[in-house]
Amino acid sequence: MTEVRHHRAPRGPVGRALAGLGSRLGVGALLIAAVAVGGLVKSATPDADTRERPFVRTGRLGETVDARTFEVRVLDVRGAKEIVRLGRTRSTGGVWVLVRVQAVARNEPTSIGYAALRDGRGRLFHATERIRQPLARGRTLQPGIPVEGEIVFEVPVEVATDLSIRLAWVPIDQRMEAVAEVPLDIDAGMVASWQARTEPVTVADATVVTGQVTR
Amino acid sequence: MNPQPTPPDAPGPATRPRVRRGWLERNLWGLLALVPLCAAAGWMHRDVITESYWEGRPREAVVSDADGWVSYAGARIRLTGLEPATDLVTFGGDPYRVPDGLVAWRATLVFQAADQEAVAGCTLRLEDAAGNTYGPNPEELNGAKVPVASCTSADEPAPPSYDVVAYFVTPASARATAVRIMIAEELPRYARLTASP
Is the residue at B166 inside a domain? Predict the structure, then answer.
């Protein structure tokens, strides 16, 4: 026999309506809570730009920096108001910055597909397309065979003392790609001397570094 | 005459008593449906970039049979020669000197490819004993009279069997061991040809 523990009078119409309303309010509160938790998770996790940012590997002048498919050393930097490349002279209203680098592929053929200067405000100045670059954007690097050459940039004079060079394999989209970054340590005296130079400087060709083959 | 109230312990009508189910029981099917839904959500957000990167990498070598032939992209290919190229000349006919510390390599392959289109977009690589790969026609051989490497025949129409010669350069310490042929539509499969014994 079933024992009846307590008795409750059946709900009236108002009671049933209130119970239904309470149930709906509970569901609504749960939905709001879920959306709020989702918003918190979203705000606490990195956005797509941050999540897929390049892997920037920094070094100093003369140091070897790993750019994943190649290793690179920034050797020195010079500048001028005029440059000569393949017999043609080109002048600028800003300043030409010529960065001499040595690069070697790691395991398979690659190239320096991306070369840019980054100023203190984060602005990027890509390697100039006014000349045929001797090393960047085209020269294929073979494993174990270091190649040395200059990468040429054209920048405003006022940013020349606050520049870092950025180098990578992928030409356009550096998301989740290794990027080598090296500050160039250019001071105002260097820029002044470049601007005072009356003779154009000849852009050096890319050459194999004899005697430094690494494998 | 008023009806008598039913005593509390009297048996009720023959209907089944209404049982109040718990939350877990009421939502069981919904919870079970969450499992495939979560899996589907994970699949939709899978790392497509990494997947496509790996699919586009040469990871599965197609090796030669006992006679040295490799069947790849509808063609039969055989490596007949892989040796240092010590007799390079300039376009003027003078001896060409390879930069110090480097060695030029000549690879000779025989192709039997009825469909030239199928092998037209191939990529050739030289492989050394350490697993490094090198591209053909390197800038280090600029000035040397070497043909542009290709997997197709120079003749039109292509003969049933034709030779392809490719030149590479490596550090002098590297030992060339194989030639790889890659065609985008075949990746991640690639042909790996070793010199016949």
Answer: yes
3-state secondary structure at position A48 = helix
> In this structure, what CATH number is given to the domain that contains residue B142?
2.60.40.1240
The reply to whether residue A143 touches residue B49, judged by beta carbons under 8 angstroms, is no
Are A127 and A96 a contacting pair, CB within 8 Å?
Answer: no
- Percent of chain B having pLDDT more than 90? 68
Closest partner residue to A215 (CB to CB) among B49, B138, B171 is B171
Number of domains in chain B: 1
Cβ neighbours for A40, distance < 8 A, ≥ 6 positions apart: none
* pLDDT at residue B26, rounded to an integer: 86
Contact A109 B174 (CB under 8 A): no
CA angle A129, A133, A138 (to 5 degrees): 105
On whether the pTM is more than 0.90, the answer is no
What value of ipTM does the predicted structure carry? 0.79
Residue type, A115: A
For residues A186 and A163, give the distance between their C-alpha atoms in angstroms, rounded to a whole number: 7
Shortest distance between the Cα of A83 and any Cα of chain B, in A, equals: 24
Alpha-carbon gap: A23 to the closest alpha carbon of chain B (Å): 13
The domain containing residue B104 runs over which residues?
A: 60-194
- Alpha helices (runs of H) in B112-179, residue ranges in sequence order: 116-120
B128 domain residue, yes or no: yes
Query: Domain for residue B48, yes or no?
Result: no
∠ CA A23-A24-A26, rounded to 5°: 65
Residue-level length of chain B: 197
Question: Which residues have a Cβ under 8 Å from the Cβ of B44 and sit 6 or more positions away?
Answer: none
How many angstroms separate the most distant Cα atoms in chain A? 114
For the ranges A32-36, A47-51, B111-115, B186-190, which has the lowest average pLDDT? A47-51
Put the strands of the sheet holding B162-171 in their side by side order.
B69-72, B75-84, B102-112, B162-171
Report, as an integer, the average pLDDT of B175-195.
94
Give the gap in angstroms from C-alpha A210 to the nearest C-alpha of chain B: 6
Q: Is B169 in contact with A214 (Cβ distance < 8 A)? A: no
pLDDT tens across A46-94, in order?
888 888 899 999 999 999 999 999 999 999 999 999 999 999 999 999 9
Residue B41 falls inside a structural domain: no
Is A109 in Cβ contact with B125 (below 8 Å)? yes
